[in-house]
Amino acid sequence: TEASFTRITEVDGDVQAFLTTTRDEALARAEQLDKEPIEGRGPLFGLPIGLKDNIVTKGIKTTCASKMLEDFVPIYDATVVEKINEAGMVTVGKLNMDEFAMGSTTEHSAFQTTHNPWNLDYVPGGSSGGSAAAVAAGEVLFSLGSDTGGSVRQPAAFCGVVGMKPTAGRISRSGLVAFASSLDQIGPITKTVEDNALLLGAIAGIDHRDSSSSPQAVPDYRAALTGDIKGMKIAVPKEYLGEGVSAEVKKSVTDALKVLESLGASWEEVSLPHLKYSSPTYYVISSSEASSNLSRFDGIRYGYRAENVQNLNELYLRSRQEGFGDEVKKRILYGTYALSADHHKDLYVKAMKVRALIAQDFANVFEKYDVIVGPTTATAPYKIGQVIEDSLTLYANDMLTVPVNLAGVPAISVPCGFSEGLPLGLQMIGKHFDEATLYRIAHAYE
Ligand code: GLN
Hints:
11-stranded mixed β-sheet; binds glutamine; EC 6.3.5.7; ligase; AS_sf; Glutamyl-tRNA(Gln) amidotransferase subunit A; Amidase_dom
């Protein structure tokens, strides 16, 4: 824990991954843990961890990188926080993100821009940019992010670390501030696949506080790391190496496939025909759910409240006007429009139908194959400021990650080379609740 704070002091002025650090509490807890008997300690005991700032922490500010929650101090811990505490981990602070997890660069934080530790002129990805950058910069070895449409995998790829988006329902969402409930999952970010497997094992499982959490037993993920992937059948969707994917990204994937072949796996090209509709489908569904979820921030129950208002309507209006940033307002407007009486049949209902087709595309491939492999992102990281005004490009670049959330399947991103000194990520997508196979192949590859 001390080493973690030393490193934070050294580099976080540049990287700016942390919104809050909890030095005194963390050192006191570490000292307390030192007194516990060695016999009862698990593999994560005493290890420092950072948490994305949309995971509620009792007594520690949880801002979602929004002015709306700038001074919000939760009165309970998220289930994942209880679980990391039970494992003996030490929370060292809360990590920067795009406001309410909406974005792909961490530039939509109301407070600061996180920089990519490999090159400070570049973004770390998003929305869990702080979580990925903190691990890449060695400030912590473990962090938690959340992934609604790629927000764990894409920053993991841009920062050269390992990020897992588990199956929908694998981890309790109780205490994760909701963006789009049918798509949100908490996910571990680490330097190695083994660390990732350990952390998922510690936080997964059913929880009576989240009725969508699954009763499926949590396997020993570390036991899956045998190094043996002989006979594994890999599918490579041609759409993952198609239009919009840069040449260096394609090359990194073909190189990775050669490594996987040399380890005894085989691969074939397949098609996910509805993939081209995944970004528009995702933005309709996620914005619709967000417009509903974010209605709770009304200036009364939580967070920011406008001053000098004349009546209740003005209180709602001005609190939301002043408390939310532009990207969040944009999503609320899209979502409200997509759910409106005049348009919901053409937008929301249609998107739900396309979502079912995308899920079926994955199911068809998984009848014959064990795992799908492709890039995590279409391009290498962007320069800070390069794409912030260009929402359409950013939304389109989510095309390789969002289908996974729409289908509810798990996916991991592992480092697979560099483009001009900046990391690229390889994405491996698995069957529902088959995170173990993903860890096995990712570990053999890494
Ligand atoms: N980039 C996507 C978005 O802006 C994904 C965000 C996420 O996964 N939280 O919505």
